[in-house]
Write the structure tokens for this entry.
Amino acid sequence: MFFEGSEKKAEIIIDAQQLSLLQDFNDDFWSKMVEQCQAKILSSVVNQSCRAFLLSESSLFVWQDRLVILTCGNTRLVNAVEYFVKQVPAAAILQVIYQRKNEYFAYAQPTNFIDDVKQLKRYTDGKAYRFGEMYSHHNYLFHSLHPYQAAKDDITYELLAYQISEDASEHLTREGLDVAEIREYFQFDKWLQGFELDDFAFEPFGYSLNAIKDDDYLTIHVTPQAHSSYVSFESSLNLIELAPTILQILNPVSFDIVTFNEMKFAASTEKFLPKHYILKDRVESDLDNGYKVNFANYLKPQNEVRQPRRLDLKGENYEL
């Protein structure tokens, strides 16, 4: 069994003087929006600043002036973006940012990044980039050309772990593993104190978590299958500083870090990242919308000789 854990991500920023995403849109609206990409809302938590929806495929976060939605599997996130922009006055939309990461099973996706950009350009012109090499880890990004400038303190982090250790994979695919055991495994009590948590353990395995505290948020999505394992972290918390804890738990073969407006990226990664990981690729750009984006791919050298993996040729979608 395989599952595409790699997410598609969209952030939409609106003019809070015209609309409030927390006050002017009810649960029925968000449910219909999520349904456009073949996902559904499982649960939600809310505080004065943010509402976080846990989805059957990843997460949706809503603040007064913006939303962030991530979906995995074979979802068509671009359809949810299209639904939103068709329901909201164009003048109220300040920025649309859309990302797709490299995928394990790209051949099984209903669209690719260019297909999605063509759909988005029906509603807004924009620029598109690829951070990273085509043949390796990379992250596609599209942003609209609205005259918007991000605040310097609008800082977010993504940490994407690939091929987690055999021990981590075996632990996270244990039969009957529940959310309490997964929380303990990730040591959330040490680094998520004061956060309200909302999480779900999927059958036969897989795990998602949303956590909010005031304006801060964190979402984690775990695809633990041994041959296509992937664990993603997206947060306003500094995931570079938290990386030693995360990497010690998962011990992945490789990982990516993507940041928006982390101005001390090089110094921070040099200080906090374990030295046994080698920097394989680094890309940096100052976008027209005011965001400084950094992308870096790290790899743990493999010195052992391994046997090839025999592929399962049963069914229609073969693993690679």
Notes: The mean pLDDT is 94. The longest helix spans residues 239-250.
